[in-house]
Specification:
By secondary structure, this protein is an alpha/beta fold. The chain is about 40% helix and about 20% strand. It has helices at about 10-25, 30-40, 45-60, 65-75, 85-90, 100-110, 115-125, 130-135, 155-160, 175-180, 195-200, 230-235, 265-275; strands at about 140-150, 165-170, 185-190, 210-215, 240-250, 255, 265, 280-290, 295-305.
Length: about 300
Amino acid sequence: MTPNQFSSGDVIADRRADYARMLDEGGDAPAAAELMEQALELAPGWAAGWFRLGEYREKADLKTGAVAAFRQALSLDPEDVFGATLKLALLGAEEVPVTPPSRYVEGLFDDYADRFDTALVEKLDYSVPPKLAALVSPHGPFRLVVDLGCGTGLFGEEIRASAGRLEGFDLSANMLAKAEAKGFYDHLGQADLSLPAEGSGLFAEGLAAQRADLVSAADVLMYLGSLETVFPLVIELLAPGGLFAFSVEEAGEGFTLRDSLRYAHSETYIRALLERYGLSLLALEKTVIRTDAGKPIRGILFLSRRKV
């Protein structure tokens, strides 16, 4: 969330919310929730405040109150930039959505863009781009690579030397700006992978279908849940015989929403999608892809080929 979303517009409410945050950081979630309730009495229309109250109540094991707060946040912010629907699903109050709210994902990465590289690579030991590039490189060079969810260009930097033309697409304008500044991409555009081809943005500006001999999605699919929209997009992008290289966080069965608000996918689920959409599995690698709260997050790297 951006700083302005954390302001209620009421100085006293903001001050109480700041004290609530300090109490929460000190480990006293019940007191933080109580003080946040006082702030919201002064600013009842503050969506971000209700979301924060939901988080404090959740930490304080006040499930019913947390659900009520998240529902109020969602009613005040129907586009759900804070991800209240995901929180409600984790609390068992709603079904797990097949995809997260696009505005939530966009806002998350717009806010994250300035510290993305440092946070992921230096603090979380993020390793997908070099590992995925190592899986792909023996099959290069590539005439045209389309990097889905390119972010700040971490995979683009790895694959640039093997790509005649490199296109990058992301939902976050701020991430795209960071990628553009690095100068690795020949084309960058905004795209929403949860939408069908005609609305996704991947074929705007006269960009042709079946134009890529490599499509990549490094650490992207965990922000999508069901991949029933992504695989048709990939098939639409790939030339016959083209490669699709991607990563997922590893789940035991199907796909599941984790406490991190990211989705994990099982090998069986991915294999079924590959078969359904005419992609042959060339390589699979199970590996640690990052750490989260000091714990290793296991993932799976896939390399597949579109059947001719």
